[in-house]
Amino acid sequence: NAGVMQNPRHLVRRRGQEARLRCSPMKGHSHVYWYRQLPEEGLKFMVYLQKENIIDESGMPKERFSAEFPKEGPSILRIQQVVRGDSAAYFCASSPGQGLSSYNEQFFGPGTRLTVL
Amino acid sequence: AQSVSQHNHHVILSEAASLELGCNYSYGGTVNLFWYVQYPGQHLQLLLKYFSGDPLVKGIKGFEAEFIKSKFSFNLRKPSVQWSDTAEYFCAVNTRGYGGSQGNLIFGKGTKLSVKP
Question: Which of A22, A29, A111, A116 has the highest Cβ tally under 10 A?
Answer without folding.
Answer: A111
